[in-house]
Write a structure and sequence with these properties.
This protein has nine helices and ten strands. The radius of gyration is 17 Å and the shape is globular. It is of the alpha/beta class and 226 residues long. Helix 2 packs across helix 5, helix 3 (52-61) packs parallel to helix 5 and helix 4 (90-100) packs parallel to helix 8 (170-189). Bound molecules: 2'-deoxycytidine-5'-monophosphate. 2'-deoxycytidine-5'-monophosphate is lined by residues 9, 31-32, 35-36, 96-97, 100, 126-129, 183, 187.
Length: 226
């Protein structure tokens, strides 16, 4: 079975996909991590990010994989080096949309993404899962949330272990909102595989719902189709 979850940055896809994978024993596939790994490799090797041919060649040459741990795909590796922490750095946030808009880069990611579903039930999350990667997914969800709420959640998540008052985070939330809006526009406006809901996707707006409520809603869809 394949569950496809698409939606903009900060809509809760990753947390929700993780929880569904846990409940049903599915494998979670974070496709954004793969585009982040390409962007990180380009930055670390000093590539010119405007050089589409070079970046495409790089995406084809590096080996991005989730080597198994305890029978499940483990942390993301580039040529066997764990990059799961580095791909979340702000320098990657700022350039990943550019890199992921290159058609050759997207093409290079398709086979490894699809391969994950060869041997596992999968809950895959990204921007084009229900439209391009798994157009025949059993369940498709397009998850959205109000941009201001997405920014708020991102910042709170970033500071979850800090002793800080939310009132002191207003500037950071405003800055994150601007970044999110910029990334949404790039992801939705690109020519190839833009961020768009598949016609047969169930749309869920999580603005006024908890993660658990959304997971329960999708879990009911899974139970109906099993
Ligand atoms: O989900 P994320 O924020 O980790 O994704 C990082 C970037 O990768 C995002 O800005 C758009 C791109 N992406 C994509 O183009 N297609 C996907 N299936 C997943 C992510």
């Amino acid at each position: 079975m394949i569950i496809a979850i698409d939606g903009p940055a900060g809509s809760g896809k990753s947390t929700i996909a993780g929880e569904l994978a846990r409940r049903f024993g599915f494998t979670k596939l974070d496709t954004g991590a793969m585009y982040r790994a390409v962007a990180l490799s380009a930055l670390d090797r000093g590539f010119d990010l405007d050089d589409e041919d070079a970046i495409t060649g790089l995406a084809r040459a590096i080996r991005i994989a989730f080597p198994p741990r305890d029978g499940k795909p483990g942390p993301i590796c580039v040529d066997d080096v764990d990059v799961s922490r580095q791909i979340r750095e702000p320098r990657v946030d700022t350039c990943v949309s550019k890199v992921s808009a290159y058609p050759g880069v997207r093409e290079a990611m398709l086979a490894p993404q699809r391969a994950v579903a060869d041997h596992h039930d999968v809950v895959a999350e990204g921007r084009d899962i229900g439209t391009v990667v798994f157009p025949h997914a059993d369940i498709k969800v397009f998850l959205t949330a109000d941009p201001a709420e997405r920014a708020r959640r991102r910042v709170i998540q970033r500071h979850e272990h800090d002793d800080i008052d939310i009132a002191d985070l207003a500037d950071e939330i405003a800055e994150t909102l601007a970044q999110i809006e910029r990334r949404d526009a790039l992801d939705a406006g690109r020519a190839v595989a833009p961020l768009v809901a598949a016609p047969d996707a169930v749309r869920i707006d999580s603005t006024a719902h908890t993660i658990d409520e959304v997971v329960d809603q999708i879990a009911r869809l899974v139970a109906e189709r099993r």
